[in-house]
Amino acid sequence: MARFGSCALILLVTLLFIVSTSSATEPAHACQRVCDGGPARRCVYDFHVEYYFTMSKACFDCPHKREDCDRHHCIPADGIERGVIAINRQLPGPSIQVCEGDRIIVNVKNHLPGESCTIHWHGIHQVGSPYMDGVPLVTQCPISPASSFRYNFIAENPGTHFYHSHSGFQRADGVFGSLVVRQNKEKDPHSSLYDYDLPEHVMLVSDWLGELGVAKFVAHHHDDGDNKPSSMIINGKGRIPKPRNELTSNDTMPLSVFNVEQGRRYRFRIISNGFLNCPIQLSVDDHMLTVIASDGGAIQPIEVDSLVIHAGERYDFIVNADQQISSYWIRLHGLMDCRPKRVFQAAILRYHGAPETEPDAILTYENTKRPGKVLNPVNIAPGDDEHITVAEVKAMSPSKTNDWSREPDRKFFLSYDFNPINSWHFHDPEHYPIFGAEKNHRLYTPQINHISLRMPPSPPLSQHGDLPFGTLCNESTVANCQQEFCDCTYTLQIPLGSLVELILIDKGVTFDATHPFHIHGSAFHVVAMERVASNVTVDQIKLMDQKGHIRRNLVDAPVKDTVAVPDGGYTIVRFMATNPGYWLFHCHLSFHIEVGMGLIFKVGEHHDFPQVPENFPKCGSWLPPVDEEEFESIVIHNLPYNVTDKIEKSEDRTSLRPPNSGDSDESSAFSSGESELTTEVPFTLSDEDNFVIPQHLTNGTLSHSESPIIHATSGTNNFQISSISFALLPFGYIYTVFVRR
């Protein structure tokens, strides 16, 4: 009889998996199943990426007829009409829910006119499949318009993950979805703590805009537009942030509902697709949250009133449905840059048998912030009785190996801040330098160690032999970066098998902010975290470390792949570099990584890497040599200052001044690659790859004196420009070339 009851329970849970879906109109995928130890499956998905629109004609009379909001291809969002980029006309995209060991195959078709894309599988380490990591110009070429790309990898690390575009601001505009890798119940260390782990209990939260992300970006970076989100959504639904009694019938959009049965315990999985600096505090009225995992890493259960989730993070928590049959608010409270516009959101926890109505309480920005014990507070470290940092939670079980607790093989101090530098992307030092502009027009550039990451023209993972000589760089190959803007393909070399320690330091001088950092291809142990003061220096942290004032948890530190760093403080993480490849490490706020707040770890050498897949796409610059006899003159107007060797102003225009052959001093300067705007950089690093060898830093941009030369002659004047400089020209600049035969 007991055996019959056990079988009946398994059958019931299986049926719940089959009928539960993330969309009211989409059937469950065959791979969405109970993970019972059966054979692994091949799980195939087709993603069609295209421009789309919220509250489109597919929505008919939504929100006045609530059933219309659930129609096929209807994306209600928060009710504000705006353009989006969607996968299969869904927001979020299709939920991928598989079992550990399944093979995931996703065919991505790019329908975007004139815009490329890629998909990153956030949390999947891609062991043995680095070419599937989905980072454009690092692990693959961007998927060009009208083209397709097949991602093919094993779901090898269980947990709550997600996928998203890694191209521009597509993630902010809707290209994201959940990716859950479940374990066999016997392997799950927390299986005894809950009764159900349902596909429908995945929460994907995100800050949200009333316009395309690129419009917000250019307004903020080139004018005085703000960088603050206007709303928030959960599983693609929400309302503009106003109390319910102030909403019109057009504003009263449907909210996400999560159904439970009284007396049962449920595992929920929350994912943050946040793209601006808006950490979100989540709580459930009259219920506690028992947090059991973060970023796929199991932790010792901890009961809290609320948790804060940063961009890129994931948390698993258990809700015990032990209250009266009713509906309860799930409250989402926006922090940091969500404060100016008082952004909040809500969803509903509804007990089976409760009326399909909303809870009575009227929500406001103030009352969505729950008091009591909170996990992962913003800019508070170390914690106290009511604030528990992620560095203070404990891994469920100590690591199988103690290798990560020994003395590190490589130790990197990675400090950052918003630097008052003349980034040529946003400030012309001659016409509108940063301190020549009005205060609300000054763009402070977020940089790691005063270097901005510039993507190479070709992915080094698959086309390292095609990279221009001198593409990769690090601190030893650049100079004067605190005074001049430095951007290059910032790469740190790590021998395969090394134990790496990263000391992440938020100097906290310019703004009171918080930055969540995400690592690709691995996870790390969070061994220490502290907010030292309102601002701090690298030397202070080094001195604290030398004196033994930094306490590291080298026994049971939690394992994560995304972690926030307190402003004016540090977070220390450690990882074993056992996965060869090129792996991105970056701030997960879109406005920051898109201006270069990141770097690349090169783990191992190319002979350690898995073989490049057959017929793998290639891309790069095309700069063939120019036959001097074909042209009498090439005049290039309005080059960005960073590639201009000599500028001379005339009454009618600014143009590149070719050196006069009769002027021996100027001519020699051009021949050697030096000028008034060039700083000599000493060689300190050599590698089998394209790290900078004898080189120059021209206004912060790496160039090489031995690079191929483009020649042009006109009378007795001649000039030479490195082809690498042309390769580094920013997208969007237009050059007018006049050719005279």
TrEMBL record:
GO molecular function: copper ion binding; oxidoreductase activity
Disordered: annotated span: 649-675
An example Gene Ontology CC term for this record: plasma membrane
CDD domains on file: CuRO_1_tcLCC2_insect_like, CuRO_2_tcLCC_insect_like, CuRO_3_tcLLC2_insect_like
Leader sequence segment: 1-24
Entry keywords, A to Z: Copper, Metal-binding, Oxidoreductase, Signal
InterPro entries: Cu-oxidase-like_N (IPR011707), Cu-oxidase_2nd (IPR001117), Cu-oxidase_C (IPR011706), Cu-oxidase_fam (IPR045087), Cu_oxidase_CS (IPR033138), Cu_oxidase_Cu_BS (IPR002355), Cupredoxin (IPR008972)
Protein's UniProt keywords contain ATP-binding: no
Domain Plastocyanin-like: 71-185, 202-354, 477-605
Gene3D superfamilies named in the record: Cupredoxins - blue copper proteins
GO biological process: iron ion transport
Top-level taxon of origin: Eukaryota
Entry's family note: Belongs to the multicopper oxidase family.
Protein name: Multicopper oxidase
Native source species: Daphnia sinensis
